[in-house]
Design goal:
The longest helix is centred in the N-terminal third of the chain and has 12 residues, at about 15-25. The chain has helices spanning about 15-25, 55-65; strands at about 5-10, 30-40, 45-50, 70-80. The chain has about 100 residues and is α+β, with helices and mostly antiparallel strands. The protein has a four-stranded antiparallel sheet. It contains two helices and four strands; from the N terminus they run βαββαβ. About 25% of the residues lie in helices and about 35% in strands.
Length: about 100
């Protein structure tokens, strides 16, 4: 398993309903470990197993939900045992948010 965390700027994510639609669509993709969305800044953070999944699969899920990813940033491979979210280091690898 190779966990990777990316952040994606998603266009037209204006409200909580949009946020939940995107979160659900991405969460249903096999290999996604965690999803966190913020409609105020139109950004979604996704942690996924990049050994079985690519950002293209995530992009397709977002498209099917009716949204568009305009760009990705903060692509980071997470080593086994490394904390995903340094802001909250007490959170473990499988519950990063």
């Amino acid at each position: 398993m190779v966990l990777t965390k990316i952040s994606a700027k998603i266009e037209e994510m204006h409200c909580k309903k949009c946020q939940e639609s995107i979160k659900q669509a991405i969460s249903e993709v096999t290999g996604v470990v965690a999803v966190r969305t913020d409609s105020q800044i139109d950004v979604t953070q996704i942690t996924y197993d990049s050994s079985i999944l690519s950002y293209r699969d995530i992009n397709n899920a977002v498209k099917l939900a009716g949204f568009k990813i305009s760009y990705y940033f903060d692509n980071k491979v997470i080593k086994w045992g490394e904390r995903i979210n340094e802001k909250y280091p007490c959170k473990d690898l499988w519950n990063p948010w």
